[in-house]
Amino acid sequence: MQLDTESLRTFATVLDTGGMTSAAQQLNLSQSAVSWKIKRLEERVGRELLIRDGRSLRPSRDGQELLSYARAIIDLHDEAVARLSSSELTGRLHLGATEEVSAELVGNAVSRFDRVHPGVIIDIIVDRGLRLEELLDRGELDLALVQVSATDLRRNDTVLWQDDQVWICAPDWTYGEGTVPLVTFGKDGFYRPLAEQILSDAGIDYRAAFSGPSSASLLAAVEAGFGVALMSSRSVSGRVITWPRGESLPDLPVVQQVARSASGPRTEVVTALIADITNELGEFTEG
User: Fold this and answer.
1) Is 203 exposed, middle or buried (CB count within 10 Å of its CB: 0-12, 13-18, 19+)?
2) Same domain, 247 and 170
3) What is the pTM of this model?
4) N or C: which end of the chain has fewer CB within 10 A?
5) 107: domain CATH number?
6) How many domains does the chain have?
7) Ramachandran region of residue 2, left (φ > 0), alpha (ψ -120 to 50) or beta?
8) Is residue 103 domain-shared with residue 29, that is, in the same domain?
């Protein structure tokens, strides 16, 4: 029995995406080609690998066992290809990112970049947005992934995606009147100055009630009733609701997540990393 890598990749992608159609789109294949690869794989192993569950697919018991091997084979294959086709690019890059994107986006992109460009050393700093912009402007960072208002875009910014914002509170703590306690990332975060400006313009009194280092800490504080938060809708989860009082406030401005490089011409290393981050976004922005 011989199992080809591309059939295993197709099998894993069908399970990752939940169906033949979405797998075909991700692999840039026709749906019939995906179906044919799965059928050929099942014929080679002599066992049913996928079970249709409503409108999605799940692995059979044999399929689940094969899946773990398939992932290991694919990872080793891709690592070998990347290593053998690695570039001669060398250098050191100081990268800054906010907590909202560091783990999922930066981890995946940098991991792939390291395999293709083993001669490049990347130092990563995770901090609040305004702090990263300060480091970038002082030349202590080569590249930063930060949130900016659409009106603050710079000519050389690479827009990665657009974020919707939302006011949130706990269902039992809606702060419908009086002073609003704010839950924020702190004075160096992107959202606190924006929230304070919006509330000030609306004539609503506020106070800084809680500052946290991560989206998880802010959500926990909001759920506990500590106050109201302005956050990216991408980060919102758990037992929170849209802040009713916020519906009377002006529409929230468009926020862009950008890759912003230090002043001056971009180095070859910075240009290559931005390209890799942009490629990684196909998965990240659909999540």
Assistant:
1) exposed
2) yes
3) 0.65
4) N
5) 3.40.190.10
6) 3
7) beta
8) no
